[in-house]
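seq as requested:
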Amino acid sequence: MDTLGPRIKQLRLEAKLNKAALARRVGVSDVTISYWESGAIKQIGHERLVALAKALNCPLSMIIEGESGSASPLYLRSRTPLPWQAGASRNIDLPIDMVPNQRWDGECYLVTPAPGESFDFLAIGDLVAIAPTEIFRQSGVYLIEQQGQLLTRQIQQGSTGELLLQRQDSQEAEPCTPESRLQGKLVARWRAEPL
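struct tokens:
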């Protein structure tokens, strides 16, 4: 645990946060953040470590143990920033044969709804592979941003080429407005089921 301070600093820098911003998110002073990062304070309580993990959008194990070698799910929240922009994140390699009939290239992230958050087409405990994209690629469920809020909507192309958004609980599709920005395509979902 002697490298806890440098790990906190590294994760803070990766999250593009200054000490004051991280301190506000965790509920401590920026001086406390400085003491943690320098190692002047070596013991950090569990509640503060959990708050740090949430503020840095990383698993608690990454703060305590460092790089785990595998990607952990990122929390999807209803407000920006996007999960992969909010802190230390690692993309996943998703074998193409696991997601038939999907087309995407580039990065893919493992995401789950954050506690207390609700999204169309996602249940608590679902794991989702999201490929960041600002381009419509084919019909499916997309992560979109509207006025700083993140939503999931079924998107399809209309007969004249316009994009149509549909909520999970609606049969009616509505046209995509200029305020709606595509942020990612959900390319795979794993549903938590009791054994």
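The first strand starts at residue 74 and ends at 76.
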